[in-house]
Amino acid sequence: MDKNSTGFKPKNLRTNNSKLIIDLFRKQEELSIQDLTNAVGLSKTSIIKIVHQLMDDGIVISAGKGSSTEEGGKRPNIYRLNPSYLYCISVLFTDYEYTGKIIDLKLQTIHTITLSYDCPHSYEEVVDNIVKIIQELMKMGNLLPEQLCGITIGMPGVINAKKGVIVRPTREFSCEQNAPLRQNVADRLPFETNIYFDNACRFGGYYELLDNEERQSRSVVVIETFEKSVGGCLIQQGELIQGDNGFVGEFGHIKTDYKTSRRCASCGNTGCFEATVCSDGLVADAGSRDYTGSALEPFLESHTLNADIIFQEANRGDELAQKVVDYAVNQFWALIQNIRFVCDPSEIIIQGLYSAAGEYFHDNLLKELVSMTYYDSSNVPTITFSDVDSMLSLHSGAALYCIDQYFGLNPD
């Protein structure tokens, strides 16, 4: 349990303290009134009132009696979160596949649906399939609308979360600019609920707030790296920042190489960070060099080379593989320098493909960052290589965001 959690004492006292206690129950299986008092920093009387209200609402339930104290005192009452009080439905649209999940308050998956599709894909089909998945999950879980804290919809592309529209779609389907997907889905559902529509990577980055109180009060940037794409998000003091038009976190489309002619498959521009560091970009870089005698040669000749093999051979000392990874390090250096000048985060978290790249990439990136002009080792942001599973973070991050929004908007 985090001893640094502190109770709120402003005008939104009940809302904030209820949410804080719910967060503690999400992290701990069972808690007593004394446990909560020690963790939150409020009086025992205040904690009892909040817990009793949460029990009346059905959010918290009794878990029996705990162990007696060493002094032989009365066994305390123990409480736990009722994970089935509310659920979130998370729908994720990715390359050639939809996945839908019912997720409870403990972020445990209850049911999953997977639906494949063929490209090209029409916008109408996207809306139809999202609605179909939501309705099927409602049936599978025997859920009533009032049991939902909300629905999340995540997909690649530039998404204006505030307006619920697609500013720029991905290559998997085409639609008009500012297509109102959130409203189109809402209009097709036979019930009303909160719908949160955003770029999937923002949800994935939000997952990094789970079980980390320090990040709730800091500026954090998450860079999510995949085989074919790059995304990310900015979180400031626990709030996911989307921007006025949905472009915050589109790190893959920041230009980091002004010399290359390599084009980004998503936006069509040359020199984008995504085009240079995705798996195809690394393979193209390796193939443009003299690879005779390299451990990469047989993979290049058989057209089976990918980023994981390059990382593996770089860690083993292969000269060509290390040159390719050095190029990727330079691209990360350029991206992070741009991010620092704009956002000045205290922590940069790297998820996905490059978080698992290994020692050679990790060590050399940290060395390059320390050597940045204007900076020294004392003010370089913390670089964290996250070990969370990408698909887990996308769905669970979306559910976490949905739950946080619900309890922030619905304190009673």
UniProtKB/TrEMBL annotation:
Protein source organism: Hungatella hathewayi WAL-18680
Residues annotated as transmembrane: none
Domain of life: Bacteria
Known role: Transcriptional repressor of xylose-utilizing enzymes.
Protein name (record): HTH marR-type domain-containing protein
Signal peptide positions (record): none
rRNA-binding in keyword set: no
Family: Belongs to the ROK (NagC/XylR) family.
Keywords: Carbohydrate metabolism, Xylose metabolism
